Amino acid sequence: MTPTALIGGTLLLPDRCLEGHALVVSAGKITKVCANADLPAGVVQRDIAGLTVAPGFIDLQVNGGGGVLFNDDPSLEAIKAIGAAHRNFGTTSFLPTLISDTVEKIDLALIAAEQGLAENTPGLIGIHLEGPFLSPQRHGIHNPAHFQTPDAELLDRLKAPKGGSLMMTLAPEEVPAKLLRQLSSRGVKLAAGHTAATYAQTVDALKAGVTGFTHLFNAMPPMLSRAPGPVAAALESEAWCTLIADGHHVDDAMLRLAIRAKADGRMIFVTDAMSCAGTDATSFQFDGKTIRVRDGRCEDDAGTLAGSNLTMIDAVRRGVRELDLPLHIAVNMATFQPASFLGIEAERGSLKPGSRADLVFLNGALDLVAVVQDGNLEEL
């Protein structure tokens, strides 16, 4: 396959915007990033003047999209439909996410993810189980009837699938440190969320294998002067924190403060998208409840937030426009940081030789012009 060099555009690297350089793509991979003058002979040049190239977005929390909810249909067909819906908004890698449900649903979801990974389903990089080891005090839209106490039989099911990642959101105070270490040793990426943990309990969980926090601020105690709680532990630690930047889950001022406070930059945009994402739906069903979509906010009749209607391109735009982030930082939170959390940064999440050629192309207004997966430049 003849290499193709994309020239004339702006390349978004994790730490800067790069001008005057070409991105060379061949056989589905990025093979070179070089100054235009250093292009090797024989490459096909394609001018993308006026466009900005970024890695494809990576979403670690996708409950649904395109009218499909993973909890309703934990199957490979549902995974494919959800992935296709979010691909239209720049997401080229994702974790289908199962909100707390029955053990039978968990089994089906894990099997579907394993099947999808074996078949190289486009965009699928594993699965996220949000629950069932959560705090009844901080259940949010989750049904506490589905919460479980960790036992040997259930724990035996929980291991990273072949060729992919298993992310698990849990309340650390509900899981003994021994079991946290056991899950972590199996390759499970542990994130604290839907938790009532104290600061001390959270710090202990970080020592036991928790390396992330799910939708920071939401479904956890607020940070107070004499009760810093999990938020303070998250911000001062080296763990990654996911944020839902839809303007509804967390006030933008708090997001700006948190991002500035996290000196290591380990902040991640997630959508927490429900089935309505990518559709014009004004309501949908979840666990026997009617969830209404009003002005981008998903909530039940009691006003409890139920996931979001957010897409990753909108999260990146809001990062720039509402959170005052440079474009490369906002994109970094949707690409390199989630890849780093999962440990797949060598192959996804940045424009560097050896990485998959999953790319998004933006114009000056941050409109999504094209999405390329596996180096298929015919889509550009």
Automatic annotation (TrEMBL):
GO terms for molecular function: N-acetylglucosamine-6-phosphate deacetylase activity. The gene is nagA. Residues 52-364 form the Amidohydrolase-related domain. The lineage of its organism: Bacteria, Pseudomonadati, Pseudomonadota, Alphaproteobacteria, Parvularculales. SUPFAM superfamilies: Composite domain of metallo-dependent hydrolases (SSF51338), Metallo-dependent hydrolases (SSF51556). Belongs to the metallo-dependent hydrolases superfamily. NagA family. Its EC number is 3.5.1.25. InterPro entries: Amidohydro-rel (IPR006680), GlcNAc_6-P_deAcase (IPR003764), Metal-dep_hydrolase_composite (IPR011059), Metal_Hydrolase (IPR032466). The keyword Metal-binding applies. Pfam families: Amidohydro_1, NagA_N. Keywords: Carbohydrate metabolism, Hydrolase, Metal-binding. This is N-acetylglucosamine-6-phosphate deacetylase. The keyword rRNA-binding does not apply. It comes from the Bacteria. It comes from Parvularcula lutaonensis.
